Amino acid sequence: LYVQKxxxxxxxxxxxxxxxxxxxxxxxxxxxxxxxxxxxxxxxHADINIQNRLDTRKNPEIASKWKHNSxxxxxxxxxxxxxxxxxxTDDIPELHDLISKSLENLGLSPEHLKDTFENDQxxxxxxxxxxxxxxxxxxxxxxxxxxIEPGDLIISETPSVTYLHHNNRYKNCCLCLRPLIxxxxxxxxxxxxxxxxxCKEKGKFHLxxxxxxxxxxxxxxxxxxxxxxxxxxxxxFLENKSKIVAEVLKPAELVANKDAFSLxxxxxxxxxxxxxxxxxxxxxxxxxxxxxxMGFFHTKDFRPLGEEELFIAELVDRLLRIAxxxxxxxxxxxxxxxxxxxxxxxxxxxxxxxxxxxxxxIFPNISLFNNSCDVNTMxxxxxxxxxxxxxxxxxxxxxxxxxxxxxxxxxADKFSRRKNLGFSCCCKACMENYPLRDNLPDFSNNxxxxxxxxxxxxxxxxxxxxxxxxxxNNKDQLIASExxxxxxxxxxxxxxRSPHEAFIVPEMYLTLANLIEENNKSLTxxxx
Length: 528
Known about the structure:
Elements: E1 2-3, E2 6-9, H1 24-30, H2 35-45, E3 47-49, H3 60-68, H4 77-86, H5 92-105, H6 110-118, E4 125-126, E5 130-135, E6 139-144, E7 153-157, E8 161-164, E9 184-185, E10 193-194, H7 197-202, H8 205-209, H9 221-230, H10 234-239, H11 241-249, H12 274-293, H13 307-326, E11 327-333, H14 344-348, E12 355-362, E13 377-381, E14 387-391, H15 414-421, H16 428-431, H17 445-450, H18 452-465, H19 473-493, H20 501-518, H21 523-527
Antiparallel strand pairs: 1-2, 2-3, 4-7, 5-6, 7-14, 8-12, 9-10, 11-12, 13-14
Helix pairs in contact: 2-12, 3-4, 4-5, 9-12, 9-13, 12-13, 18-19, 19-20
């Protein structure tokens, strides 16, 4: 087990040897029938030794250095936000003024940025043209009940739980993950900054986690599960025990504004092997240990194991399995070089990477959409903290509405995709073994002569993508919008069905243009 600044030692259950063909621990666990027996077995053999704890108390010296010599006040925004995280409340207005001046010197308007991030706080939306179906082979999946046109909204949803990767803590809000402007610090430690007082009031987890952030992995699924519990109290889970059980048993449905308990509806891992089970039990034990350190249980130790601890341990174990199949990366657009001459074409062809993973979340409705290696939708993480999915081609009634887990059929064969995805995908592209890009059918000259409108749009698209520089933000936004419109028009008049080369290039640029127009962006990207 790897935990930042913490040594987790389970000496009698050698997890490092799990690929050697089995251990005594695996065999003994396999003979146990109840969760209590298995968890107490892990507890009996576990020894957690925490050393070199991180001091997360506020350090006023970091925040007051600029007072002694105002001419040497830092201009770096990340340094200024670190000072906010450590300062006394009385110093926050002055530091906010320094942040505003720094932004203005860079050519950014603080008020314009705040308006951009805070406006249009729309409610969650789900298309009325969707329903959930089930099959023995695919399990649950979402289908269209009516034709859905390119650009139509499928769903827009706020995650039930998020976790900002630790190295972004002085760049992004630790709740909604938007870029920080006038950051608002936690009162109890220097590890959390919020983009607004509203987010601080919603993000109650910092009240529990402060002083123990070094026990939380810097990123990953374990962090998400700890965050889910630190965001609520023990009584909150105990009082809703029957509701949690009901969520596990009831059929999944697409409903806006689900609460955190709806996560228990989601698929809880496909793997059943003994190594996987031991790994989840070990992490469950560690999470329970961390929650005790945070005061979640209001007791000093959980030896012997009480009923409350056992109940939470079972929830943790199930949620870890759920996170394995339903954890979504949250991204923002970012660039390293403000003087870059890269174009949209460079990005699509892999010569420039503008997508940066900043955190993770679980979305209870969006998690019901299955993967397709020939995905018919596209998604963004917008600056209001929502994940939004729209159709990128016409989806006919009865057709599955899919999500994308990162593997295109035309870039890798199905065996490579299966290895990278970690499961056997049941999408049409995999089942029918769609060919790689070089072997796809394409329009002949005669075909192009009969679809002149599509061909003219394609020529216009090639012209657009070769001239738009990603560091020319205002122009880039306009061209991204025109690229998006052109690609939508091409999708609307295209007479062939996938797999076909005519889909690939327009849909790649449509997805990229949609990201540039709608996705959350770093301040560096805004500087472009």
